[in-house]
Amino acid sequence: SSWHRFDKTVEQQVVKDYQKNNHGTTSVTINSTSYEINFNDMQQMNTSTKYKRNVRRREQKKNVVKVIQYL
User: How far apart are CA 34 and CA 2, in angstroms?
Assistant: First the structure.
C-alpha cells in the first residue's frame, strides 16, 4: 500500500480540526462514506464497518502546510 492524500476540502477540514485539538476526533465524508479520524491514535475509522486504517501528518516544505494522509 501507499499513502494517499485526502482531497483538498477534506484535508483543509482535518487540518483545521487537528489544529484546534490534536488529541481529539473529527468526522469527514469521503465518497459518500463517513469516517471518524482520531488524532490521538492517528487512525480513521469507517463509521459503518468500523474498519480502521492509519493516517499520518506530514509537513510540506514549500508552504509549511500540514497534510493528513491515509494508508
Answer: 21
